[in-house]
Amino acid sequence: MEPTEQQTIPETAAPESAPATTFLDAGAPGPCPAKQHPVLRVKRACLANFARFAQFSRFGPANTPAPAPQALSTGDAPPTALRNVLRFFALMLVLTLVARGTAGATMPVVSLCSPASGTITQGVAVNGTVQREGGQALPLPEGLEVESLAVQRGQTLHEGEVLATFSTRDIAAQLAAKNAALQKQRAALAAGSLPVTADAYALDKAQTDLARAQEDDRRAEAAQQALVEAAQAQQIAALAAQQAAEEALNALVQQEAPADEDALAAANEQLARAKEAATAATQGVAAAIQTMDDTLLGTARATENAQSALAQAQADYEKAQASAAVTAQSNQADAALVQLEIDRLEGEIAQLTALQQQDGKLLSPSSAAVLACTLTPGQKTGEGGATLRLTDATSRTLAAFTLPQEKARLLTPGQSVAVQHETTSLAATVQSVVYTGDAAGGVAGSAGGETAQVLAALPQEEAGAWPLGQPLKIEITFSQATYDCCLPASAVRQDSTGRYVLVVAQTQTAFGVTNTATRVPVTVLEVSSDGATAAVLGSFAGKIITESDRTVAPGAAVRVQA
């Protein structure tokens, strides 16, 4: 930064012995000359020399008295002094130009742009591969050694074409093992097909015991009731005899003629015997009733016990029925699984038989394309997940790619994406978005996390012949918006007070145009997904700084790149 005219530069008087013709002294003393700008040091020396010149040109050496004023005139000026004045001003001009050139060389060089309307696009670019719709793994019997392999991934096959050749020795061994396993499964299926029922013996016995107890109770009640009735009949007869004896005695006592003593004695004795018989009969009735009660209580308890046993037997039978139903369902499910195993064994046996008849050669069942082939010679089928996956050769061609979760949620089935294969660009339609939770994303710089596998259908006419597994470049556009003011994102700066841009303001001076960086606050409306363009809102006129070769602060002088 150049010193202004208002800055005070300390002057240093030249020593008395200094010659009058010395005007430039780069080593003139001053405050910390090592830390001053070279231009400042030169100017400071020039000012000091000018002071010396003024002293010598006007008065001569310091020890020479000044001439009388009236003796001086323009025509009388010493020629040496005039030349010194002209030299001084010429030197000042040169130094000023050098100072401006030096200052210009130290200014930041900036590139400018003008705001313009534009479109901000939000999207993503990922890598993908060519796949085919559908496809399934060709079922292979386990334990067969691969002797040779005739196909590779992406190859198109015709029906009956050889895929691989297996060991005939292994085929024979597997046939024997599969047939034995098939017989075992058929026996298990027959055993599981038997009906399952609940055992009703305990219930039937309980029902019989209850019926017998109830019958015993009825018989005991009838027998005891007969005994009570017989006792009651004896009581009635005894009471009637007692009454007859009482009436006979009363008749003897009430007759007019005195009764015979013997007759009275006989009547009293008869009455006493009748009373004893009546008392015995009454006691017999009470005993019969007590016996009946005791007997019926026993038979009632026996009936209650039989009823409880029947209820328990009924509950046990119902549980047995439920268990039998569950067992029957389980047997039915087991039978279904066994049947599936039988079907699988029969299929493998049929395939092994066909392989044996074809000398171990596996043939393509139809015209197809090889989606995947992980078989290797010397390897046995069923080891390491080795598979041979085929698909219909006419199936649709797909673009498969992976997106992070936050990007995948912006996709919907039916959305169009741009796909590029080598020099061909096509539009594909999104078919499915399946979240996998895989941390390995397909987007460069992805931080990981849950991802989604996306399949997009390609036009069959253009992409049907693309080889499987070939790399693709996919570009997805999520949104586009048009704004009145768009800038390169590098033009937007930020400090503690907010975002801003630097607008170049031009000022005309005596030495030319001065460019100054002016701070203008802006509001960022949207930044494109690639980070290259920003839509802003602000009040500014002039061109905006986008790049510079060094840091530019607001208010700094800059040099515009040509």
Description:
It contains seven helices and 21 strands. The longest helix is centred in the middle third of the chain and has 97 residues, at 261-357. With 562 residues, the protein is α+β, with helices and mostly antiparallel strands. The chain has a six-stranded mixed beta sheet, with no helix packed on it. The protein has a six-stranded antiparallel beta barrel with strand order 2-10-13-12-11-14. Helix 1 (38-59) packs antiparallel against helix 2 (79-106) and helix 4 runs antiparallel to helix 5.
Q: Would you spell out the secondary-structure blueprint of this structure?
A:
Layout: H1 38-59, H2 79-106, E1 109-113, E2 116-132, E3 136-137, E4 146-149, E5 156-157, E6 162-166, H3 168-192, H4 201-254, H5 261-357, E7 361-363, E8 368-373, E9 388-392, E10 397-404, H6 405-408, E11 416-421, E12 424-435, E13 451-457, H7 460-463, E14 471-488, E15 493-495, E16 498-509, E17 512-521, E18 523-527, E19 533-537, E20 544-548, E21 557-560
Parallel strand pairs: 1-21
Antiparallel strand pairs: 1-20, 2-10, 2-14, 3-9, 4-6, 5-8, 6-7, 8-9, 10-13, 11-12, 11-14, 12-13, 14-19, 15-16, 16-17, 17-21, 18-19
Helix pairs in contact: 1-2, 3-5, 4-5
